[in-house]
Design brief:
alpha/beta; five-stranded parallel β-sheet; globular
Length: 129
């Protein structure tokens, strides 16, 4: 088996290239194999394609399908029940955050974020079970 087979997978759904680049770097630095989607269509395909990651970093504001729609889709699939979903957003309204938690989000990260704090939050989630 290759080393990649032993790495936890992380699904990164982010349409901003600079943020996606930074998040990919942080996830890879923690030992993750990153599955990336740049919009709601690619994210929907990733959710439906089969591989279930250990964590998902999911932007709320995406072209075509927004983060809440994608969250609902992945939470409707039993094999995704144990996947930790961290929502990423620049929106901070309580009603918006409440909707995401009600839909099955495990955590929220507001943009802009501190990379060191984000790594500290994510590292325990990607460690071997």
């Amino acid at each position: 088996m290759s080393d990649a087979a032993h790495q936890p997978a992380a699904l990164l759904v982010e349409d901003d290239e600079s943020i996606a680049f930074l998040l990919r770097f942080l996830l890879e630095r923690m030992g993750c194999r990153v599955l990336a989607a740049r919009d709601g269509v690619e994210a929907m395909q990733a959710i439906e394609s089969g591989e279930v990651p250990r964590i998902v970093l999911l932007d709320m504001m995406l072209p075509v399908h927004d983060g809440l729609t994608l969250l609902g889709k992945l939470r409707s699939q039993p094999e995704w029940d144990d996947v930790h979903v961290v929502m990423l957003t620049a929106k901070g309204e309580h009603a918006f955050v409440d909707k995401a938690f009600a839909a099955g989000a495990n955590d929220f990260v507001h943009k802009p974020f501190n990379p060191a704090e984000l790594m500290a939050k994510l590292k325990p989630l990607v460690q071997p079970a």
